Write the structure tokens for this entry.
Amino acid sequence: MKSPIKIVIPMAGLGTRLRPHTWSKPKQLISVAGKAVLDHVLDTFSTLPDANNIELINIVGYLGDQIEAHIKQSHPHLKARYVLQEDPRGQSHAIYLAREFLSGPMLMVFADTLIETNLSFLANEQADAVTWVKPVPDPRRFGVAVVDGDGCVTRLIEKPKEMDNNLVVVGFYYFKRAEDLLAAIEKQMELGLKLKGEYFLADAVNIMLERGLKMRAEKVDVWLDAGTSEALLDTNRYLLDNGRSNTDQASKKESVVTIPPVFIHPTAEVVNSVIGPHVSIGARCKVESSILREAILEDDAQVTDVILERSLIGRHAQISRRAGVINAGDQTIVTL
């Protein structure tokens, strides 16, 4: 049987930009458009040439047991391994911790960004590696790929000072030989190539390029961020606008006005309310006498007599008699 393609997903970060939600769960398990961010990431791999023959290598840290439980429950068919990164020292360090499981072709994917891409082309890929990129107006807070006239990558640059090159690296990579990447990471660590105490993958890739790696850039049109509350709400809007809503089913609820697009989980109880546009309501939520727009309610949240907009409500949170913007973590209770 052909060896599975290895998919490395670093998820050991603390998710500080998503406090208070990440005090009680990894950021990859925050809901958007009806399911966890991680679920949307895993959906991307359905277009792989051999989508049934993959092996997930999940690099986990704080609250990593929740990641493992979620994958076992929601994706029981996937072969998955878990590697603990207790002291996060960057992307290259995370990959290196999983070295015993890595050989042959691999993907490395950041789990707080979502892209739309068709991976079927990898069946006939001629390059040694591929990095997915997207042109953006201001690339200075990202990493960029420098490409030649043939579309081949000559160098990666972290947080460039100039704006003449706007091909931002979106955190999605393919390597034909994981062994070559691991060898470059070893050299990176030997040389101490790091930024603010972290080993960035870009430095390892640059070592590979200097050694003759043929890497090309694959452009994407859609690159969604799930790293902050505001970004999550924008991503929720996009996903609901593009096929992830269940408005037809949700609009059948009595005493509820739905303004599409929305996602309302079948187990949610919604009465005497106006929902939408761009609202996602999770499993077992209870919504009564409320108006919600541009909002995400995670599983088991309860809202009563509220008007909420641009709000993210965590699991089991309870919000009553409140108008405005709320960013409430899991099990929060707000009554005014």
Q: What stands out?
A: The longest strand covers residues 167-175. The chain has a mean pLDDT of 88.
